[in-house]
Design a protein that fits this description.
The protein has helices at residues 5-14, 21-33, 43-55, 88-97, 108-116, 157-176, 192-203, 219-234, 243-250, 253-267, 277-289, 308-315, 331-349, 353-356; strands at 64-72, 99-100, 103-104, 119-126, 137-139, 179-187, 271-274, 297-299. With 362 residues, it is α/β, with parallel strands linked by helices. It has two domains: 5-60 and 346-356, Nicotinate-nucleotide-dimethylbenzimidazole phosphoribosyltransferase (CobT), small domain (5,6-Dimethylbenzimidazole Phosphoribosyltransferase, Chain: A, domain 1, Orthogonal Bundle); 64-341, 3-Layer(aba) Sandwich (Rossmann fold), CATH 3.40.50. Its EC number is 2.4.2.21.
């Protein structure tokens, strides 16, 4: 008998347990004995302890990494909130899948992923076009783009749940294929507008402090974008205490899909690397649904969008770097892979003072 989607989502949320405190304590004790001054590896030490909690061992050994790019379009682009037309979305999907002299994919995330050996998955969850068949394109389309959130709810609750469960299935596939580090990623022209709207509602903050230039819009477009978000919020279609309702009212299919990846990753005790602002909006909704999700989230960098710092502060996450990234696609998340792998390796492979027969501190 098929399980109702809402029941499947409740089961997924209920399966997310806090990180392993005992493993983290043992990792801290090991860190204190390694052949280095205390704290000499800085943030890497904190990251390694958190990884111990995720994987349930004081010597974590994560295997591979996967970037899962969820692609969706947005009805709100009709309001002139983006510097690029919606036709860019299907064109960029073709770029993600293109054959190049260096390997599959000609986008930034493909190039960066190749350098760290991360696998890139591309999933159509809501492109407003019929995409050509391609063996590497995963179709989980819920609908052809969202409705215009300026005037009506972007999605129904059922559509949100469908997209979340699709993301969970994508994460499960990546895990089966050897990924212990998951990078939820997105592509969708105009998607910083719903991300800002979702963030504003969930954090109950003013729109200007959470809304940036996205793909680089000019001052007039930024002002219009902020006005559109304020009008959408003024509709009163959702409340902060109902994260699924907020996603339906103001969100995007790729945002909901990424949330599903995060929930499944946490349920399977895998590390989840947050890329940027759009991913942050999904994480806010996720932590409202399952507070223990936070234990599995690792912030790559603080991106150039003005609201990202507020998201990270609410999530209680410290970014690994600040490179003024604003591309999306999971690019920042890919750059964080070597840092997490290195943090785990240092904890796992360094010798202690006793093992190395090196005199410890007096």
């Amino acid at each position: 008998m098929d399980v109702h989607p809402y029941e499947a989502l409740k089961t997924l949320i209920a399966s997310i347990l806090p990180a392993d405190e005992q493993a983290m304590q043992r990792a801290r004790e090991r860190q204190a004995q390694l052949t280095k001054p205390t704290g000499a590896l800085g943030l890497l030490e904190d990251l390694s302890v958190r990884l111990a909690g995720v994987f349930g061992t004081p010597t974590p050994a994560p295997r591979g990494a996967a970037v899962i790019v969820a692609v969706g379009d947005h009805g709100v682009v009709a309001e002139g909130v983006s510097a690029y037309p919606p036709e860019v979305t299907p064109a960029m999907v073709a770029n993600f899948l293109a054959d190049t002299p260096f390997g599959p994919g000609g986008a930034a995330v493909n190039a960066l992923a190749r350098t760290v050996g991360a696998r890139v998955y591309v999933a159509d969850v809501g492109v407003n076009a019929t995409l050509p068949d391609h063996p590497a394109l995963i179709s989980v389309k819920v609908r052809r783009g969202t409705r215009n959130l300026r005037h009506e709810p972007a999605l129904t609750r059922d559509e949100v749940i469908q997209a979340i469960l699709a993301g969970a299935a994508l994460a499960a596939e990546a895990i089966r294929n050897g990924a212990d580090l998951l990078i939820p990623a997105e592509l969708g022209i105009g998607n910083t507008t719903p991300a800002s709207a979702v963030t504003a509602r969930l954090l109950q903050r003013e729109v200007p402090g959470l809304t940036g230039r996205g793909t680089g819009v000019d001052d007039a477009t930024l002002a219009r974008k902020q006005a559109v978000i304020e009008a959408a919020l003024a509709r009163g279609g959702s409340v902060p205490t109902d994260p699924l309702g907020v996603l339906a009212d103001l969100g995007g299919l790729e945002i909901a899909c990424m949330l599903g990846m995060m929930l499944k990753g946490a349920a399977e005790r895998r590390a989840i690397i947050l890329d940027g602002f759009v991913e942050g909006s999904a994480a806010l909704a996720g932590m409202a649904l399952a507070p223990a999700l936070r234990d599995y989230l690792f912030a790559a960098g603080e991106c150039a969008e003005v609201g990202h710092a507020a998201q990270l502060a609410h999530l209680g996450l410290r970014p690994m770097f600040r490179l003024d990234l604003r591309l999306g696609e999971g690019t920042g998340g890919v750059l964080a892979v070597p840092m997490l792998m290195s943090a785990a390796a240092a904890l796992r492979e360094m010798r202690t003072f006793a093992e190395a027969q090196v005199p410890d501190r007096a």
